[in-house]
Amino acid sequence: MERNGSGNKLLDRLLLLVEYLSMGTLVLLAILILLQIALRNLFSIAFAWLDELSRWCQVSMVYLSVPLLSQRNQLLEVDSFVKIFPSSLRSIVALFSEVLTVAFCAVFLWSGYALMEKAGTVKTPALGLPNNLFFVPVFLGMVLLGGTILQAILQKKWRPE
Questions:
Q1: Could you read off the pLDDT of 24-48 as tens digits, one per residue?
Q2: Which of 51, 117, 135, 159 is the most buried (most CB within 10 A)?
């Protein structure tokens, strides 16, 4: 796969670790879904914890994958609005978009922190995991997304067309 290293060795190593974690959650998700299908269809057995763990794997995979896609410049972009502007302004609009994304990450993390202060010790219904632990991949993904975009801004890797 194409790698656009950030130039920050710590960030690159974290993203490599997150890549393996993300692939692991994808494999685990596939196994859990196949197991659920087999248990329900062949034995008429359903386990709530399998369903909850599958959902956790899916959410974790998404939030852990987004910073990787950002680092590689592979995030889906709807740029029809940006293309309206003359080419001289496109880079400013692209920079503004990146700054807004970093701001979104900060607001997301701040509101998540406020939520975890109140509901962090509440346990999930089937697995019995505290929300503080259950949402670690979500917050980790947001921290890394903000970090990769901030690093790209600082290195001027944002590239409008």
A1: 999 999 999 999 999 999 999 999 9
A2: 135
